[in-house]
Amino acid sequence: MALKNITVHTDGGARGNPGPAAIGYVIEGLADQAISAGQKIGSTTNNQAEYRALIAALVQLSERDLVGATVSIYLDSELVVKQMLGEYRVKDVGLRELSEQAQTLVKSLESRNCQLDLSAVPRSQNKEADWLVNQALDDDGS
After folding, report:
1. First-to-last CA distance in the chain?
2. Mean pLDDT over the full length of the chain
3. Which H, E and C letters describe 64-77, residue by residue?
4. Given 3-state DSSP classes, what are the helix, strand and coil percentages for the chain, each rounded to the nearest 5?
5. Tens of pLDDT along 119-138?
6. Helix/strand/coil for 34
7. Residues 6+ apart with CB under 8 A from 94
8. 43, CA 20 to 30 Å: which among 107, 133, 138, 139?
9. CA distance 53 to 59
10. What is the rounded CA–CA span in Å between residue 2 and residue 95?
11. How does residue 4 score in pLDDT terms, banded at 50, 70 and 90?
């Protein structure tokens, strides 16, 4: 079986801080099809929304057979990336649980011989995930 190269873009946003929030993610390179989703997550902070978007994408990945895959994950939150890589401590109590949940999912994927790479990118390189967040926030439910 050929090794898989999977690309993931995630984004979370809150209008107000805290305020109405949403997440978005795009997963490409899976055998069956690309996955994209955007959804409201209630009222939260921007950083919590960023973590929740990452977690949602990691859950999607964990539900698939990705043994030996290389997964490149791109976020436009430098804070979340640096915390996940251990370069920054997670001081905020509201982020600590989310960070631990994301780390558990990463370790689970790595235990299945997946290689994960998290990178911070400018918002301009994360357009589709950002669009999904804004579409979810703009959706009035009608």
Report:
1. 45
2. 94
3. CCCCCCEEEEEECC
4. 40, 30, 30
5. 999 999 999 999 999 999 99
6. coil
7. 45, 48
8. 107
9. 10
10. 37
11. confident
